[in-house]
Here is the input.
Amino acid sequence: MVERHPGVVIRAMGASDVQVAVNFVRNAGLMLSIKSGGHQIAGHVVADDTVLLDLSMMQSVYVDPEAKTARVAPGALLGDVDRETQAHGLVVPTGINSTTGIAGLTLGGGFGWTTRKFGMTIDNLLSAEVVTANGEIVTASPNTHPDLIWAIRGGGGNFGVVTSFKFQLHDLGPDVLPGLIVHPIENAPELLAEYAKIADTSPDELTVWSVMRTAPPLPFLPEEWHGREVLILAACYSGPMDEGEKAMSALRGLGEPIADVISPHKFVDWQAAFDPLLTPGARKYGKSHDFFGLTSDAIAGLLDGISNFRDPACEAFIAHVGGARLSRIKGTYDSGNKFRPNHNILPS
Ligand SMILES: Cc1cc2nc3c(=O)[nH]c(=O)nc-3n(C[C@H](O)[C@H](O)[C@H](O)COP(=O)(O)OP(=O)(O)OC[C@H]3O[C@@H](n4cnc5c(N)ncnc54)[C@H](O)[C@@H]3O)c2cc1C
Here is the structure.
């Protein structure tokens, strides 16, 4: 997707390499771009005729199971983080595709299957080691550099070069209750209206995303459905199995699905379940919008939008957030039980 050519690529192995690179670039009056996982669709990691600082070889993940923290290098991918943390039955909330980089995801906020329960990735960022533009190596934390840690928590990157992240971990797994429920797209108006109610009232452990697309040739789908438009409810319960069965019952009771494959899985495997749809080199483009609640107008707009898809690889999905994260935003519930933040941080 991104056709730009840096003049020089520097591949760093540690903070001291980054320090040398930053000092060299500053003293030579050059421009620097930073690449970690290289997953970002906008391609801000690469610019023409500049120095590209590539951190993708710095992939270490060290877990302290006693303190329930992890120190993660910026080139680690989500799969690397999940493998190491889940070896101790621990987790930090991240995204839904195991090949995404932890660095860019954290610097942009980070959300996925366990965000409703444990917050966004940045809610769990305790501190970060940063090489600043003047070449200093500092630890940004609420006590040491409060302005820098504030900017790193969601500012989108490039506030210095982050060379290590320290995360708070939580108990989870190794088994969780996830899976897919597939319906014909014709039933989407009623199903999405019911989905909206479930999304509003479900416990923080339950996260349900809706995906509208043509059915991939999934082995559990009857062949006649392959390539036809479907609504997929993708769900994960991050808590005890028996409570998960109960929490999923309303969702599983909706309509007459073509397939329902909700069953216990290793959390690490579920974290990679969508990888085949999000392969490197697929040249995909995406855009998104934040909203509170799913009105009938929004449902109609979405369904109208997907009827104009021109390629079987196109999809629209609704990511379910709220829960732990919303409880940290100050605001009130209106008479319709909809959350209204005090500050207009998101479009309504
Ligand atoms: C298929 C796909 C699925 C996704 N799913 C999710 C999801 O479920 N949840 C979610 O929250 N996001 C998701 N994203 C978005 C993803 O989090 C961002 O694209 C993120 O930037 C990727 O991280 P990266 O390390 O690969 O970033 P890169 O592409 O390497 O960098 C992204 C930006 O951060 C800057 N940057 C990178 N590393 C550093 C560093 N060490 N210090 C300072 N600045 C730095 C870069 O210069 C660039 O501007 C997804 C993206 C894709 C393509």
